Amino acid sequence: MNVVQPQTERELPPALIQTLTRAKRIVTLTGAGISAESGLPTFRDKLTGLWTNYNPAQLATSEAFLREPDLVWGWYKWRESQMLAAKPNAGHYALAKMETQFPRFDLLTQNVDNLHERAGSASPFHLHGELTKPRCFDCGTLNAILPPMISPEPEGGRRINPPKCTQCGGLIRPGVVWFGEPLPEATFDAAVTLADACDVFLCVGTSSLVHPAAELPISAKRNGAILCIINIEKTPLDRHSEFVLRGSTSSILPLIVNAMYRTNATWP
Ligand code: BJW
Ligand code: ZN
């Protein structure tokens, strides 16, 4: 485990840049930390995390939705309004750039905010769904008629009744994966295959506490990948990783891209 806090390109471990440049396949897994500097709260941060003020069991489970659908739908509408107002940051743009420069670069994300796409990433694998894709709780039909909520919502949301499914009358639910629910099967299977075949696995802005996503880097490592963590805090994966870069994704990812491709680009 090699822990560094790089402020400049020169402070990046040369062995990391060499490893990345030589890699045939790179897989990156992102979490809420990459969107934190776009103004979206993470989940578990002690001061600003979403779950400092809200109880996940009350909001991020199907039982909660069935018990109080208006509370849960309203909370997600508030989150959606935050996401629509947010802009991708330099970390998102750096990953989009890597994807265009690197022959085989796959992006797995636990985030539901679509900021990777808005930064130009072509087709990230959405392990925990997408907030912009609500669907029927009962029959799964995608709810295409809902316009995105762009009006600001009060902090924490308000009670809003979810719309009804036009096919079966069931409740429309947020398009995310809640605790106790399986991840989208084809997406997760593809993620496992990619993780197990990559040379380098980057874990970016995730606490690595939520399963089964947290198993992907471990599985990649078991299959011979080099692990690299980018995070402002320690994570349980650090001790398994060859490289631990301590710092914000919006500063470190651009440093890596500039070092790999010998550019001096500035990032929005
Ligand atoms: C920065 C930064 C900056 C900040 N720069 N860094 C095995 C063991 C134990 C438990 C389980 C297990 N297998 C399954 C479970 C149960 C459960 C689970 O994992 N529980 C654990 C919490 C203990 N998992 C599940 O229930 C999953 N389903 C499942 O396993 O189903 C099985 C099944 C099979 C067949 C039939 C039925 C069931 C589903 C998990 C779904 C997770 N959903 C959520 C909510 C999504 C919707 C929403 O947005 O509301 O997904 S939970 C939440 O956590 C969200 C995130 O995607 C996920 C991960 O969080 P993330 O992204 O890592 O955020 P944080 O806040 O934790 O961390 C942010 C990090 O960024 C921190 O490290 C900061 O330091 C860092 N950071 N700013 C760099 N600027
Ligand atoms: Zn339906």
Q: Please, could you describe this protein's structure?
A:
By secondary structure, the chain is of the alpha/beta class. The strands form two sheets. The protein has a seven-stranded parallel sheet with strand order 1-9-8-7-2-3-4, sandwiched between helices. Strands 5-6 form a two-stranded antiparallel ribbon. The chain is 35% helix and 13% strand. The model has no long low-confidence stretch (mean pLDDT 92). The two termini are 31 Å apart. The radius of gyration is 19 Å and the shape is globular. α7 runs parallel beside α11 and α9 runs parallel beside α10. Zinc ion (ZN) binds next to loops.
Tell me, rounded to a whole number, the average pLDDT: 92
Determine the number of helices (DSSP H or I, runs of at least 4 residues): 11
Distance from first to last alpha carbon: 31 Å
Coarse structural class = alpha/beta
> What low-confidence regions span 5 or more consecutive residues with pLDDT below 50?
none
Q: How many E strands?
A: 9
The H-and-E topology, N to C, reads as: EHEHHHHHHEHEEEHEHEEH
Radius of gyration: 19 Å
- Report strand %: 5-15%
- Give the bound compounds: ligand BJW, zinc ion
Please estimate the helix content.
25-40%
Shape: globular
Strand neighbour order, sheet with most strands: 1-9-8-7-2-3-4
Biggest sheet, in brief? Answer: 7 strands, parallel
